[in-house]
Amino acid sequence: MQLTAVLTHAEEGGFVALNPETGTTSQGETVEEAVANLRDATTLYLSAFPLPVTGHPFITMFTVPEPAHV
Question: Residue 15, exposed/middle/buried by CB under 10 A (0-12, 13-18, 19+)?
Answer without folding.
Answer: buried
